[in-house]
Amino acid sequence: MKTKRVEYLGFVLLLGFALLSKVDAKGQKTGTASIQKQQYDVAAFVWPSYHPDDRAKIFWPAGFGEWETVMKNKPKYDGHEQPRQPLWGYINEADPYVAEMEINAAADHGVNVFIFDWYWYDGMPFLEGHLNDGYLQAKNNDRVKFYLMWANHDVDLTWDKRNAGKPNDDLIWKGAVDRDEFEKICHRIIEKYFKHPSYYTIDGKPCFMIYDLNSLIAGLGGITETKEALDWFRNETVKAGLKGINLQACLRSSKFRLSDNKGNVIGMQADVVKELGFDGLSHYQFVHFAGIDRDYLDIIEDVEKEWTRLDQAFDIPYYPHVSVGWDNNPRFEMFRPGVVKNNPPENFEKALKMARDYADKHPNQYPLITINSWNEWTETSYLQPCTMYGYGYLEAVRRVFVK
């Protein structure tokens, strides 16, 4: 009964915002045109957990995804800026009508690319509903392009608030796959996604990002085997009638070392990325390469320095990354250190301007900028409207990137 009430609340709020989104300030209809050409490609990562998925009930037994965790969120200390709640309500993001609303809101504010976190565990995909049943079935999905980031990390009980962070936080699924499984994954991606007219490309090549290089190398058996597998993937894409792949690596700290399937260190991240022949680089979250338990304005100073270092260290493009914030306390009953402070929309906007300036200084590469994220509510890094700031984060994107 509780589930039905929650879904009804989401539907009522959705209906109101969907109707509002079709009319601009002058009473004119919006959201019906194809993807608008803008100077920058602003790509927001999408965490596809906010919809019913039977396999996900191991973490969220109520049956409507990680909204269950968001609903239970409470502050952990005086001044803790929690709970954060969605202004649109607890929407089902695997519903094409919901997806149409989200696409219009994103495109109208300058977010013209979605990077979907994409999962594969135990021989089958996981959490594909948002992409397959929502975005791909939306009538306006030509307004916002999409591409995939293979989130090939291990899964423990972090997504399960009842057990997250406790001593029994055991491994549930491994992200590493062997060569046979890798080929199965690649064929699915080529046929099901790469050929879609809204798939995002660079120089005509579909983009594909890999989240965890350590997991990739461990599963495939070593650096040589991984290079062979990636070359095979490129060739299969060409055989399918496409121009190849724009393969992107999701970076960690500059001091990050990569290991083989036996845990032996095989090299620094920069050396391995070059050896594997990636075409581009970005990050997923500030937390992966910058100290985040401090003021947002201090964080972005270090972030800008890291962009400069990467620009000097690599011959391939680095696409500047901006995170809205970080605080994953909603996923835990106990307090977890590491909370970004002072990150209202006006400070987030300063980071966006940094990214825009970086893109302007690199006219020979695609003006692609990645943002964490569209909807990481339980990591407190989202663009979607919330009850605290309204459309503030989206308006910041619009002011910086939409003329």
UniProtKB/TrEMBL annotation:
Q: Which InterPro entries match?
A: WbsX
PANTHER family according to UniProt: GLYCOSYLTRANSFERASE, RHAMNAN SYNTHESIS F
Q: Would you tell me the protein name for this molecule? A: Glycosyltransferase WbsX
* Organism in which the protein naturally occurs: Mariniphaga sediminis
Q: Print the organism lineage.
A: Bacteria, Pseudomonadati, Bacteroidota, Bacteroidia, Marinilabiliales
